[in-house]
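---------- Forwarded message ----------

FYI, see the NTRK3 factor record below. Original note from H. follows.
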Amino acid sequence: PPRILTLEEPVLHLEHCIAFAVHGNPAPTLHWLHNGQVLRETEIIHMEFYQQGEVSEGCLLFNKPTHYNNGNYTIVATNQLGSANQTIKGHFLEKPFPAVSGLFSF
């Protein structure tokens, strides 16, 4: 069955990257969950990886993430022999301050 070899907290290079390495033979299919929901790749969030033998290495990339992207990210690797998953917390920005009413009086 597949195994998650590494999963690292987001690091900012040109884009934020959650780096991962997955082992599996046959090669597993990979997908992501965000807070338990299937993550759909967009121009803001997408996965890039390459396969070398039985190991797939890559990044879940974030282009200018906001506080909406904070949360738990789970990588799921599946092949005919089974599946494996691992979760890591992604924290990109604090929520903006809530509006405070009554602070100013006119």
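H. also flagged this: The chain has one domain: 3-89.
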